[in-house]
Design goal:
This protein is α/β, with parallel strands linked by helices. Helices cover 57% and strands 16% of the residues. It folds into two domains: 5-81; 84-245, Endonuclease, Chain A (2-Layer Sandwich). Strands 1-7-6-5-2-3-4 form a seven-stranded mixed β-sheet, with helices on both faces. It is elongated and about 100 Å long. Strand 2 (107-112), helix 4 (116-131) and strand 3 form a beta-alpha-beta unit. Residues 1-6 have low confidence and may be disordered. It has helices at residues 5-36, 41-81, 90-102, 116-131, 146-154, 161-179, 231-245; strands at 83-87, 107-112, 135-141, 186-191, 197-202, 205-210, 222-225. Helix 1 (5-36) packs antiparallel against helix 2.
Length: 254
């Protein structure tokens, strides 16, 4: 049976606190003896000095332990979830994302709307990836969905503008399919429900984020997960697979 590492760490921390408290108590006792007990000037100075040193050491150790523990807890959370970075906007996120796209060798998965920015800036690269057999899967909103009409109101854009980008996306995907040696690996499917999520995966990098009221998608905060064995990466990639394989949620557009 493997030892419970969490209980072991808790036990060690408890022992460290106990030892530190004992050192602090010993320092206080020695200081009090040196100050209030008649043991001679020489011994009083010695005990007072030792007592002050132990008290100072215990205080410094306690403060240091508190700081180190906090940083350790933060590191554990980051390592556990595989969080690589937080971007104040998807526009900022596009810089590393575009770099990863150049080295994509297996898959590119997306959840979003029309991806006009991607199509405008990376059209040539995406066509190259398609021709090399990279799997490209996209989930977008049904262009005739009532939720899309509401989203256009939320973003305060011209009515029908997002719908038009989605229709353009569908045509673009058809062009990518025609370039692929395995057309079945390139597909766009559509959903007609809430919630609305942003998701972008390039091999072992995942970007996610919300769609917020009153803000264009390119102005919205986004997060990057970059460890394929982390809980964050597995959570979001698993979520995408669930949506992609749910025939009641994800459908082809006739």
């Amino acid at each position: 049976m493997k030892p419970d590492t969490s209980q072991l760490k808790t036990s060690l921390k408890t022992n460290e606190k106990l030892l530190n408290n004992l050192i602090l108590l010993l320092g206080i006792v020695l200081l009090l003896i040196g100050v209030f007990v008649s043991i001679g000037e020489k011994w009083a100075a010695v005990l007072t000095g030792i007592g002050c040193s132990l008290i100072a050491s215990a205080i410094v150790s306690k403060l240091n332990a508190m700081y180190i523990q906090k940083r350790e807890e933060e590191r554990v959370v980051i390592d556990k979830w595989g969080l690589r970075s937080v971007y104040s906007s998807r526009q900022e996120m596009n810089v590393p994302c575009d770099q990863y796209l150049h080295y994509a060798v297996s898959r590119i998965d997306m959840i979003g709307f029309g991806y006009r920015s991607l199509r405008d800036s990376q059209d040539k690269l995406m066509r190259e990836k398609a021709s090399k057999g990279v799997c490209i899967r996209i989930i977008s909103m049904n262009p005739d969905s009532k939720f899309l009409i509401q989203r256009e109101k939320d973003e305060k854009v011209v009515s029908g503008s997002i719908r038009e980008t989605i229709l353009q996306l569908k045509d673009w995907v058809d062009e990518l399919k025609s370039l692929s040696p395995d057309p079945e690996k390139i597909e766009v499917r559509f959903y007609d429900s809430l919630p609305q999520d942003f998701y972008f995966r390039v091999d072992d990098h995942v970007f996610v984020g919300p769609y917020q009221y009153g803000r264009l998608s390119q102005q919205t905060i986004s997060y990057e997960y970059a460890d394929k064995n982390s809980e964050g990466f597995c959570y979001y990639t698993g979520y995408f697979e669930d949506l992609w394989n749910d025939k009641n949620y994800c459908k082809k557009l006739n």
